[in-house]
Amino acid sequence: LGAVNSVAIEEYNEISARYAALCEQEKDLKEAREKLIATIQHINRTTRKMFTETMEIIKRNFKDAFRKLFNGGTADLIITDEENILESGIEIVARPPGKQPTSISLLSTGEKSMTAIALLVAMFMVKPSPFCFLDEVDAPLDDANVNRFINMLKELQAKTQFIVITHNKLTMESAKVIYGVTMEEPGVSKIISMQIED
What we know:
Blueprint: H1 8-70, E1 74-79, E2 90-95, H2 109-126, E3 131-135, H3 143-156, E4 161-165, H4 169-173, E5 177-185, E6 188-195
Parallel strand pairs: 3-4
Antiparallel strand pairs: 1-2, 5-6
């Protein structure tokens, strides 16, 4: 029969204890994995629901803001992959009055700027930010469009403070406070501020 292993019982007990510990760890890992998968599915369901609801509100606001800024026309936001909303892109459809562009890239610079402003306003109507920086968004706009842009900002100024970097005189006229940079001496910039009274 050969030599008898006198420590076989001790080795068996050690390996049995290790096997039991590993089985317990495997069970814990499987339970944790199932809980994680359930949590991810719950988060995805909640996110999908919240995104869909918010998207519908933004879509309505975008259509209204676009019509105000363009004095007509149609606009829409389209989810490109309805089956996979959380990974989908969003297509912006903008048709100013009298135009039927097939792509937003066919719009003029001013029309693109006005469309972006309409989308920004639509999002601010859902979740206003305490402040917003706008850098030269009115640069490509003519006077009539600048006035509509200013009126749109005035509607939102109760909840959001707008800091607008601009060279446009009409935009500056509508500001409450103006900060300017001047150079009295060559190479030396000086910041001046002016409080505009109503």
